[in-house]
């Protein structure tokens, strides 16, 4: 692959050593090149205006001045074609949901091995999404196809109004206990809705429920 054809990657992380190490790993992949680096979201907005639009951004969630959530939202508004992969130290359910809703197309932990980072970059570049083990393979497959998968439509038609209401609440930052209070139901009943949806939709995590809801238009990002 010629230099001009390399996929452009931008890095946004306030930890300099980690960012420099990440830049070295990205450049070592051969078909990717680091376009620019930024210390935080505010700096990122300046850098993108100076250096141009990257294909993919590896974005830390916790940054000073302007965090990953705000920066992803800003990108979605001003540069909607730029794909964001969120970086985090923690596999935090609420953080993942917030980043998805802010427009991130992938989520990877900072302690991941280089091959997983390469896989994430390749997947986002070619397919538009990467969710690693956070979502079942079946759901990733349906997201990637983004077509009229009859089994997905059938599953959606099998959901009743209360299950759909629960699914919408599950796409927020509310805890299951708060969802129970919102729906005027017991926590045990809410757990029942969750487990039923896991079984019906063949999904194993709350993040999977969020991605199913986005894919099927129940909520929008």
Automatic annotation (TrEMBL):
Modified residues (4-aspartylphosphate): 60
Keyword Magnesium tagged: no
SUPFAM superfamilies: C-terminal effector domain of the bipartite response regulators, CheY-like
Coiled coil stretches, renumbered: none
GO biological processes: phosphorelay signal transduction system; regulation of DNA-templated transcription
Example of a GO MF term: DNA binding
Domain HTH luxR-type, chain residue ranges per copy: 152-217
A Pfam family that the UniProt record links to this protein: Response_reg
Domain of life: Bacteria
Limits of the Response regulatory domain: 8-125
Keyword set, alphabetical order: DNA-binding, Phosphoprotein
PANTHER family hit by this protein: TWO-COMPONENT RESPONSE REGULATOR
Protein's recorded name: Response regulator transcription factor
């Amino acid at each position: 692959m010629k230099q001009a054809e390399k996929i452009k990657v931008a890095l946004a992380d306030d930890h300099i050593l980690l960012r420099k190490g990440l830049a070295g790993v990205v450049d070592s992949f051969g078909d990717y090149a680091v376009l620019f680096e930024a210390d935080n979201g505010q700096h990122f907005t300046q850098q993108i205006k100076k250096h141009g639009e990257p294909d993919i951004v590896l974005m830390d969630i916790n940054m000073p001045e302007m965090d990953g959530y705000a920066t992803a939202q800003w990108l979605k508004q001003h540069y909607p074609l730029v794909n964001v992969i969120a970086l985090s130290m923690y596999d935090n359910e609420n953080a993942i949901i917030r980043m998805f809703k802010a427009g991130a197309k992938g989520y990877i932990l900072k302690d991941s091995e280089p091959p997983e980072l390469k896989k994430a970059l390749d997947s986002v570049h070619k397919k538009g999404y990467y969710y690693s083990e956070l979502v079942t393979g079946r759901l990733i497959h349906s997201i990637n196809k983004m077509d009229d998968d009859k089994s997905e439509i059938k599953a959606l038609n099998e959901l009743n109004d209360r299950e759909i209401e629960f699914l919408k609440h599950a796409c927020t930052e509310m805890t299951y206990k708060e969802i129970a209070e919102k729906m005027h139901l017991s926590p045990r009943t809410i757990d029942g809705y969750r487990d039923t949806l896991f079984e019906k939709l063949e999904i194993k995590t709350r993040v999977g429920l969020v991605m199913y809801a986005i894919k099927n238009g129940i909520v929008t990002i």
